[in-house]
Amino acid sequence: MTAAPLPGSAACPWLTADLPGLGGRLGDAPEDFVVDEVPAYAPSGEGPHFFVRVRKRDRNTAEVREALARAAGCPPMDVGFAGRKDRHAVTTQWFSLPKAPVDPGLEGVELLETTPHNNKLRIGHLKGNRFKVRLVELDPDAPARLPALLERLSQGVPNYYGEQRFGRDTRGLRDALGFVAEPRRRVKDPQFLASVLQSAIFNTWLGARISAGALHTLVPGDVLKKRETGGLFVSEDAAADAPRVASGEVDPTGPLPGGRMRAGLAEALEREQAALLSVLPDAEMRAVLDRFAPGTRREARIFPADLNVTLYAATREATLEFFLPAGSFATVLLAELCHRAPREGGFVPEGE
Question: Mind telling me the catalytic residues?
Answer without folding.
Answer: 86
